[in-house]
Structure formats: structure tokens, C-alpha cells
Amino acid sequence: MIKALNIYDFSKFELEEFLTSKNYPKYRTSQIWRYLYRNNIDNFEDMKNIPIDLISDLNKYFFIEKLKEMNYVISKDKSTYKSLFKLTDNLRIETVLMNYPSDDHRKPRKTICVSSQVGCALGCTFCATGQQGFFRQLKTGEIISQIMYFKKLEDKKYFDSYLSKPEKSYDGIKNIVFMGMGEPLANYNNTIKAIKILNDPNGINLGARSITISTVGLVPEIIKLSKENIQINLAVSLHAPDNFTRAQTVPINKRYPIEMLIDACKKYIQQTNRKIFFEYVLLSGQNDSTSHANDLGILLKGMLAHVNLIPVNPTKLSEYKRTSDSMIIKFQKELKKFGIPSTIRMEKGIEVSAGCGQLATSNEY
């Protein structure tokens, strides 16, 4: 008996190879691709101009994955929707949809925060995902399925009655951030394959610059990523300007100390001419002094860089305290002395554990 495969696991080229091996013309690939990713079809029978024999083969060899939503929660301000999904092996992941209002340079938009692994092996001490441990990599199709789930709900106008709409329109899903559960670069091949599917002009057609990968700092993979022909955004979780401080919260720093990480980042910038976003979670009394800001300024001076300042979010397994607003402003002003731009992260869904570092399948709904 033939075991059907998740069609979302297949690149366009791989799908074309399958179809031509079955003596179907190449142009059928683009038709099926558009049905899957433009029309958001989740049943092969709904592909109206595809011949019956091809529909039969698609059903024989493939299935279109439909993630099972076990539960969901919506933030008080109705800007954030978090889903708990059950995978085929009964493991679970969380995915977050966020609505952002317009600002000085962007229209109102929807952003999906996707997971790349079930759990995480890197064990950052302020991160709920890292504290729950690692179970397995997500397949390409499981990454894509998170996005397709929300695209299909959007098509059905499902969110109209659930999420706030302070603007005339949120104009569809415009950004994908690999900042959910897991370390995307530790699942390198599946993550890159998913990005190329998202970026395909005949499918979802999401611009590469609307996609962000966040990494805790896997040096070989950062170098490898710099050689990919995709102009995505790279966010590096730095969180400290020196090895002693960083090693207390980011265990991978012992393998890839700051000197190696910054060197890799400089090579990435040189290769891609792309800015790097450095994520900096502020922990009261630990990494948030003006002295830390001064050291960070020295570390990043002259780089094509932007710092995202993130007040630490509460989790069940950590007791870190938030930096005060006044200290954050002082920190930001110190960075400015070195010509380093920074932004204080706009918070979304903190009270429903949908914020940075809060995703974990043990969360209550």
C-alpha cells in the first residue's frame, strides 16, 4: 500500500518531477501550485480544471495537511490570536497571529509567528520553549501548514468577529517571522525550503524581505545562510555584550562565544549587504545597565545593525524581573551615542503567553 505524503513538504521542482514521472505535462505543476497556495484549496477534488486521472493520482500519492487546532486564546485587546495545534504524532506546537496598526512607514498588517521545532534544545533561561526541552524538528509541510491554516481562516473572514479592526483593513498576512517555538537554523534545510515555498511568485508570493528568521547564534548556519540567494531579514538573539553575561542566559554562547558570533554577523552583512537585527531581552539587574549599553555600543559600532530592545516576559519557569521604562530609555540613549538605532519592541499578547519567549505547549488555555 502506498503511503500518501504531505504535498506541502514538496518544493515546486519536486512536484514537477513527480508529475513528469507520471507522464503529466509540466504546466500542471503551476496549476496545482496556484490551487494550493493562491486559492488555498485543501481538497484535490476542488481543483476544477485538473483531469480526473490526475486528481486520482494526487489522492493516491498525497494529502493536503490540515492542522488540528486543539485550542486558541485571544488577547484582551483582540490584537493577538494564539493557536495550539496537534501534529499527526500527537505532539503539539503553538503559532501566533498578530495584528499591527499602521505606523510612520507601514500600513496596518497581519504577522504570523511560526514554530520551526517541537520544543527547543538550546535552553535559553528566559524562554519557556527552551525550558520544556526538544522533541523533534518540524517538517517543511508542518511549517507551511501553520501559515496555510491562518490563510484559510482569513479567506473565510473568520477573524472579522474575533480580532480588533481599528483600521479600515489589515490587508492580509504580510509578514512571517520564524520566532515561534524552536531554533530555525537548527532545522536549516526544512526552514529554507519553507521560505522558498512562501517566496514563490506563483504561490503565496510573500516577499523575502517580509520574512524574518531569528537565531540564537548558530555560527556555521549564519555563514551558510549568507550564501543563500534569498533576501530575508536576519534577527540574532544577542542579549548581552560580553561572554560572561551572555553565557548565564544563553548556553550556546559556550560553543559560539560573542567574538565568533559577531565575526559571523560581519561576514553575513558583507556577503548580503543586509542589516542584522540584534534582539536584546532586558533582564533587570543583569544586562540592562548603562554600562551594558555602552559595551553593546562598542561591540556593534560601525555595523549595519538595528537593536530590538525587549522587556523580558513572564514564564512559569523563570523569575526574571522586567527592566523599568526609565532604564530602557537610558539604555536606548546610550546606544544612540554610538550611532546605533534601536526600537523598543511593541508588545503583543503578553497576558495570554503569546509574547517573545512565552510559547510552550504546557501553557494553559
Structure in words:
The strands form three sheets. This protein has a ten-stranded mixed sheet, covered by helices on one side. The protein has a two-stranded parallel ribbon with strand order 1-2. It starts with a strand and ends in a 21-residue tail after the last strand. Helix 10 (about 290-300) links the parallel strand 12 (about 275-280) and strand 13 (about 305-310). The model is unreliable at about 165-170 (pLDDT under 50). It folds into two domains: about 5-65, DNA polymerase, domain 1 (Orthogonal Bundle); about 70-350, TIM Barrel. It has about 375 residues and is α/β, with parallel strands linked by helices. Helix 1 packs across helix 2 (about 25-35), helix 5 (about 140-155) runs parallel beside helix 6 (about 190-200) and helix 7 packs parallel to helix 9 (about 260-270). Helices cover about 30% and strands about 20% of the residues. It is elongated, with a radius of gyration of 21 Å.
Residues in helices, as a percent range: 25-40%
| Shape call | elongated
Number of structural domains: 2
The run of helices and strands is EHHHEEEEEEHEHEHEHEHHEHEHE
Quickly name the level 1 CATH class of the largest domain.
Alpha Beta
Mean pLDDT: 89
If classified by CATH, what would the architecture of the largest domain be?
Alpha-Beta Barrel
Strand content: 15-25%
Look up the CATH topology of the largest domain: TIM Barrel
How would you sum up the major sheet? 10 strands, mixed
Q: Could you state the CATH homologous superfamily of the largest domain? A: Aldolase class I
